Structure formats: C-alpha cells, structure tokens
C-alpha cells in the first residue's frame, strides 16, 4: 500500500515537472520566433529599414521594459538603477491635447512600443502655476524610469488650450515633438459635456442640458463662452502654438480613426517619432463587449482602457448638432489648411 502511494507521488511530480519544462521550452522558442518575425518585412508595407543591425531584439526590449516597471514600483536602490542603466529622462514627445480627443488611448497604445515609456499620470507641469514654479527638476522626478535608448512620453490635454504652455515647453526643449489628437468637433463637444455631466451626477448635482449650454439664449447663436465649444475650435489654439514651433514639429492624429482602425494611425506616429516599426495588428484586438480595441502586450498580458472611456452620449437635438457643424465648418477648413491634413468631418 505504501509502495503504491510513493509510486503515485513520483508519477505526479514527473507529470508536473514535464509541464513546467514544456512551458519554459515554449517561452524560449516563442521569444526567438518573435525576433525573427520582426526582421521580416510585412507584405503590406513592402519596405524594410535599411539597417536593423543596431536595433535591440524585440524580446530584449520587452524584458527591459518590464524590468524598468518592476524597479519603478518597488523600493529601488541607486545600485540597482546603475546596474540596469535606468535613468529618468525629460519627455522627447508630449501629447498636448485635445481633451476628449483620445489622449489616453493614444498614450496607452504608444506604450505598446518597447522603445516608449509613458508617464502614467497627467503631470500638469506647464499649465499649472504651482507645479511650474517647482521647476524642471520637479518635472523630471515625475517621469518614469527608462533606459537611455527609450523615449519618454507624457500627456496633459489642458496644454493645448492654455496660453502660457507653448512658450514654457519651448524654453525647456525647442526641438520637442508634439502630438495633437483631434476628433470631429461636434462629437468632441458632446463628449466633453458628457464627462462633466457624469461628474455632476456622481455628486448628486444638477447640470444644464447640452442644448442650453451650447446656444446663447439672447442671440440664439452658438455660445462661444462655453468652454467645450471653444476647445473644439482647433485652428485658434494651433495658430498660437505656431508662434513658437514650426508645423513640422506637430503630428496630428485622427482620434476617430484611432477608435475604428488604430493601427494605421499608430504607424504614422511611429514614423513621426523616428521609431522602428514595432506595433502590429497582433498588439490590438477588438473587444466586442466594450466596443473598443484593447491592447495585447504579449501572450500573457493584455489590457483594455478604463470603463470611463466610451461613455454613452446623451441624445442631442439634431438641429443643434447641425447648428454646431455649420459653426465649426470655417474653423475646420482653416485647420486643414494649416496642418495639411483633411478629415471627413461634415
């Protein structure tokens, strides 16, 4: 009886050991396969980088990225940071806006790239007087740890509409790359209202109907004093930014396309940031329940955006929507002219 129990235990441990070894073998083979796959030029693109010899293998970048996050979350010592060559770097690219344009989605999707490290929270350094008075060293401390070859990206949507921000960023880095993600202005205005409405409801506070806020009751015209309307006049704010930065340092992202077909937009951003092409369709999958694309970092880890993203908009009087579209139209045309990019906005 005792002998049979011992034999059964040996067989059990043998099976478990085989499973563990098999899993390790699968991981090793798969990581090697990923490296080889990324050296192959996708048929769709037909173009490969001229020289990939200096690029770090994909799985090595992913492991380094995971290590940086692990050390960032734990109590790390200077010795650990030196050993792994981790440093804090000022952003080389900033997502400056626009609010409710898809800034969070863009930042999260860019973090799929192993050479990109994101500041998880909105820092609000350049648009907040108290924070700005603390100086660049304070700003640097708010950045995540990264490796020298990686670029840090932060996003604060209020930057785009705050008058002092362009000059302040210019003083820090006049050659920084600026990402601006926009949506169809009327849709963005409704989305802005929806977010504020939800916040009011959570606090059991009342809030005016959308139609009451966007139309001036005295003139029956669009109410430009309403912040959600003003924010959607993209050309107005971009012209101010162009007093400090040339248009070549901006990249305009189509926020509507990022929702329905994100990969082409992300490829354009990779090119703008001079990054090797790393984000692929493998990294993006459509979640039918959420109605949005979610992110797949590897076969073990994936994530979707927070539940607060993709709120259901309230019903808006169609005549009010049409009134807003007519109002925004000349500003949209000017925006197209400045950026050299046309959108399918009514």
From TrEMBL:
The keyword Isomerase does not apply. It is a single-pass type II membrane protein. GO terms for cellular component: Golgi membrane. It is an enzyme of class 2 (transferase). The active site is at 100 (for sulfotransferase activity). Disulfide bonds join 294-304. It is found in: Golgi apparatus membrane. 3'-phosphoadenylyl sulfate binds at residues 100-104, 183, 191, 309-313. Its EC number is 2.8.2.-. SUPFAM superfamilies: P-loop containing nucleoside triphosphate hydrolases. It catalyses: alpha-D-glucosaminyl-[heparan sulfate](n) + 3'-phosphoadenylyl sulfate = 3-sulfo-alpha-D-glucosaminyl-[heparan sulfate](n) + adenosine 3',5'-bisphosphate + H(+). Residues 91-335 form the Sulfotransferase domain. GO terms for molecular function: [heparan sulfate]-glucosamine 3-sulfotransferase activity. Pfam families: Sulfotransfer_1 (PF00685). Belongs to the sulfotransferase 1 family. This is Sulfotransferase. It comes from Carassius auratus. The gene is hs3st5.
